Amino acid sequence: MTKRRYHFIAVLFSVIVITVAVFAFYKSDYRTKPLQDVVTVDPQEVTEVSLNSPYLNTGFHSTTDPQKINILVHYLKDTGYQRLNNDQSSYMPTRAAMIYLYENDKTDFLIPYEKEVMINHKVYRVKNQDIDNQFLQDFYLSLEE
Q1: Could you say which DSSP state residue 4 is in?
Q2: CA–CA separation, 44 vs 46, rounded Å?
Q3: Per-domain residue ranges of the chain
């Protein structure tokens, strides 16, 4: 083969490798994703939320009030979620809040703790902002009203 053919093959091979790498990155479970990409419910169509408090032994509180649902969903949407390798958490608390999001026949659950959250049995690192326990506690108590 001539030198020109070797160059052509090398360039073609490089383009293929780069294309596969970019495609793999964008399809990866391990890049930071928005809420709608990590839950099965449509965040805009949530019809009910239910959560408990790890600090109070009063059980779950639920609401179907669209305004309250919107507050919680928007709070969760402001966060980015990056899947952890093998879903291995660096810290698993003994107590944590549990949040259920309902959309008709679909249900998702979230267990936020520290800088991580378990969503439907998959563990994610929280990006952009932490999911604050105080916010969740205040939201939980507001559901009693």
Answers
A1: H
A2: 6
A3: 1-30, 32-142
Longest dimension (CA), the chain: 80
Q: What is the pLDDT of residues 92-108, one digit of tens each?
A: 777 888 999 999 999 99
User: Which pLDDT value is given to residue 25?
Assistant: 59
**CA nearest 43: which of 33, 53, 32, 52?**
33
Is the pLDDT higher at 58 or at 96? 96
Residue 32 corresponds to which tokens in the numbers above?
Answer: 């930071």
Q: Nearest Cα to 130, choosing from 112, 111, 142?
A: 112
Under 8 Å between Cβ of 61 and 34: no
pLDDT computed for residue 27 by the predictor: 55
Whether the predicted model's global pTM rises above the 0.90 cut: no
Report phi then psi at 35, rounded to 5. -55, -45
* CATH architecture of structural domain 32-142: Sandwich (2.60)
